């Protein structure tokens, strides 16, 4: 076997067996790259125990002791766990699970059974509610409202059912953090702990105040009757805060990833780096979809519940608008305002998160300068842009509907339609007070007419008698 070589210092050919040289210049420069497969990470080789590793941003074996996303939202998760609605167990750091046979689940069942028993006790013993509203219709609206206020109890078993999926989403965030640290060399800079702590403190205070104001202005409840309403009011608005933090986390991570991608392309532009960012973005897009799927039934119920509360509250306000705005209408106005605000924030935050994950990232890709990149890197960028088009990142509640500003507009339009129909139906029903006045006026008119007729007939008879007597005297 022989080798053909021409120059040992500057070889223009490659030594190949049997003397068949191949020119280096004749090799194809562009290779086929399978872009739909995530690049395999290089295995980490074991290092000697004598090697000194850096204390921060350890790239040799990146490890996160506590998952950053959970630690940032921990105050809200803790409060929901105390209320017994989100029984997530953490056997170790970065591991989130849902176990039916666990102490947290047993505690959640005891809290829920206590709440249900308390509500049944109040309803079975028929605790009197002294209404301050006047009028049969408004009393009925208030009674319906305070029955609907107890509906969020249904959300507790729904959250139990979806806790396993929520735990899987949190584990997905842990994987995202690990991959991001391997790619960028730093931990994920998410700073939402102060917001979560403020929500865990402020929302219970505001919810309790709202319930007290509503009950004082609309009905007079005993203090023992306020307990279930306060609990369910806090639960409703804490779910809104929990949803806000999830969507805000998606928005922040999408912006961080877009900025890191642009900074990486300014200095170096290999195809492998673009592929790694593409794989990381696909993880983020999947997390945005999983967020909607994991909270599907819970927030579908919350949106419908808020829609019903808003409709009844505004209906009660508009039905008595001709009589003027009174003290009893403060509770209805406050309930309507808070419910509309919560529904808007749920829809707006989901819309903002979807926009940042997809549309904003597409703008970053379109602004990339491709002229100085090689062919492989340009192909990767184009495939990245195509991946953002083919992978939906909208937050959908189990495929029933997308949570965005269009949903808020549709619910308001439907609510206006129902309000117009109900108000027309109310106008067509005659008022009882008017009927009573008409009934009282009818006997009065009949009596007066009869009296006048009797007086007229008596006068005529007397005149006739006197005229006859006068004629008889003249004849005599």
Automatic annotation (TrEMBL):
PANTHER family: GUSTATORY AND ODORANT RECEPTOR 63A-RELATED (PTHR21143:SF131), INVERTEBRATE GUSTATORY RECEPTOR (PTHR21143). InterPro entries: 7TM_chemorcpt. It comes from Helicoverpa armigera. The chain crosses the membrane at residues 105-124, 144-161, 196-221, 296-318, 330-347. Its main location: membrane. This is Gustatory receptor. The gene is Gr3. It is a multi-pass membrane protein. One of its GO terms (biological process) is signal transduction. Pfam families: 7tm_7. It comes from the Eukaryota. Keywords: Cell membrane, Membrane, Receptor, Transducer, Transmembrane, Transmembrane helix. GO terms for cellular component: axon; dendrite; neuronal cell body; plasma membrane. It is found in: Cell membrane. Belongs to the insect chemoreceptor superfamily. Gustatory receptor (GR) family. Gustatory receptor which mediates acceptance or avoidance behavior, depending on its substrates.
